[in-house]
Amino acid sequence: MGLKGKLFKAALVLMLIAVLPGLPPKTVFPFKPISITPPRPLTGVLAPNQLLNGAERLHEGGLLQPEGVLVRGNATYVSVYGGKILELGEQGSVRTVVKLGPECVGTYSERVCGRPLGIDFDTKGNNLIVADPYLGIWQVHIKTGEKKLLVSKTNAIIEDGTKPTEPSSSSRSRLTTRQPNIPNGVAVARNGDFYWSDSASDFIFEDAVQAVLCNPSGRLLHYSRAEGKSRVLIDEVYGANGVVLSPDESFVLVGELGGQLIRRYYLKGPLAGTHDIFIDGLPGAVDNLNGDVHGFWVGLVIAADENNPSFVAMLAPFPNLRRLLVRLFVLVEAPFKLWYDATGSDFALWATHHIGHLGGLAGLFPNRGTVLRLDWEGNIVLALHNDDTSSHIISQGVLQGKDHLLLGSPVNTWLGRVKLTPETVAALKGTVKPVPEAAKKPPTPREEL
């Protein structure tokens, strides 16, 4: 058989894998074209700079994947690989606040031992609220480490608030919805309730590549501490990630990693119960959000611009191609999953972890690292970039003191820290007007996901 014949047969097999019905995986929503607003040009307020260059590396080699970051006084709290929350004190001290899961067998066993992502301070007690994509959402006492599971991965009570309630006796079954799959971001309200994100429903966190190739199945949810149950506020969020509440708690925001935008859900006022796009066309994949009375920080974990297009955005309009890629990943991973389930083999666990893990592609990410500062009206006030890869895969930016910014990361083994310029500090204090955003434009019409 000649080369042309072999290529034809290979193309035929791939086409059948892509279009044949009934092949795994079974996704929550069907594959269909997705529209993603192109990133805004890096001009005006978004123009490249070196404000994040030369990041200091705190606890280098001792913090594995410090994704979530919180600061209170002289203490910094970080979520790290292995189901741990660490407290970083003065003079370089490190204290383990809690270990959520069992001990790890390696850097590939996160599905077993945990990998907490989003964290926030509780408003009802000296606790942290911690979201782990494998172990659920926990309340953890900061001093004693006492932990309480609030949202389970297997038996959470979740109502689909996106569908109208019916008074009939059968309404309960229509209101219950799917179990959480990737708890990610969390923001605690003054009354102790919290808002949280579930990134996707089709794959677990270590299969993030497959998850972002499927049609959006992420959600923004509200958890009632009094009732012990959650309610879906927005469904079909494309890689639901960071969550932050406005200062007056009139709305809550959730970032979209895949859509490169931020969505807003109204909690009060005439628009209460509805949602819209707060800002889109951001120059990167949105990760964690954290705010104060004046505005909030946005970590862009994977840069995207005219010279560095997002692979998610490039594939979004082509459902058959995305379905083919997902099915190929599933086929490659399936024997290793069966092997691990049958024997508990470390090698099989290693293989299933790395096939589809987004962290394995970190070497392909653009060198630009970016943290944005937005006000509560959706204006980009500041854009801080680096181009020296000192901390370019940034999950979160958190102010420490008056003039330092901590930089979390899902891949680094240190916590980044940069000293802010006097001009940046002044802008944060509101003593100077925001830089005009020359590139700002009305939102591009976009298919609701």
TrEMBL record:
Gene3D superfamilies: TolB, C-terminal domain. Residues 160-182 are annotated as: Disordered. Keywords: Glycoprotein, Phosphoprotein, Signal. GO terms for cellular component: endomembrane system. Coiled coil: none annotated. Residues 1-22 form the signal peptide. SUPFAM superfamilies: Calcium-dependent phosphotriesterase. GO terms for molecular function: hydrolase activity. InterPro entries: 6-blade_b-propeller_TolB-like, Strictosidine_synth_cons-reg. Residues 184-270 form the Strictosidine synthase conserved region domain. Belongs to the strictosidine synthase family. PANTHER family: ADIPOCYTE PLASMA MEMBRANE-ASSOCIATED PROTEIN HEMOMUCIN-RELATED, STRICTOSIDINE SYNTHASE-RELATED. This is Strictosidine synthase conserved region domain-containing protein. It comes from Anopheles farauti.
